[in-house]
Amino acid sequence: MYKSAKLKVLGGKLLEITLEYNGVIKKATITGDFFMYPESALQDIEKSLVGTKVERTEQEIAEQISKKIEGIGVTMIGIGVEDIAKIVKMAVEE
Fold first, then answer.
1. Are 2 and 40 in contact (CB under 8 A)?
2. Where are any strands of DSSP class E within the chain?
3. Angle subtended at Cα 87 by Cα 25 and Cα 34, rounded to the nearest 5 degrees
4. Cα(25)–Cα(11) distance, integer angstroms
C-alpha cells in the first residue's frame, strides 16, 4: 500500500512523505522545502524507517530516527525529528 502525507511545520516549512507499507514500512521518501546537512542524512533517515512497524508511536519513531543520525552531526533547518515522526504517523493513519 502507498500513502502520502503533507505537513506545514512550525515556521511554515513544508514536509512531505510517501510510504510503501504492509504492516511494516518497506520504503520511505521524504521531501519538502527544508534543509539538512549533510544531505546524505536524509537517505539515512529514510532507510532507518524501513522495517518499522506502522503501529509504533510517534515518540518511538522519533527515538529510532535520533539513534540513526546520532554521531553523524546532522543539522536540520526548518524541521525536526519529531516532525518526521509525526508525518509518518499521519501517512499510515489516513
1. no
2. 2-8, 14-21, 25-32, 35-37, 75-77
3. 115
4. 28
Cα 58 from Cα 22, distance rounded (Å):
18
Answer for the pair 72, 55: CB distance below 8 angstroms, yes or no. no
74 close to 58: Cβ distance less than 8 angstroms: no
Is 3.40.50.300 the CATH classification of the domain at 2-93? no
CB 10 within 8 A of CB 82: no
Radius of gyration for the alpha carbons in the chain, expressed in angstroms and rounded = 12
- The residue type of 15 is L
Q: Model confidence over 8-57: pLDDT tens digits? A: 998 889 999 999 999 999 999 999 999 999 999 999 999 999 999 999 99
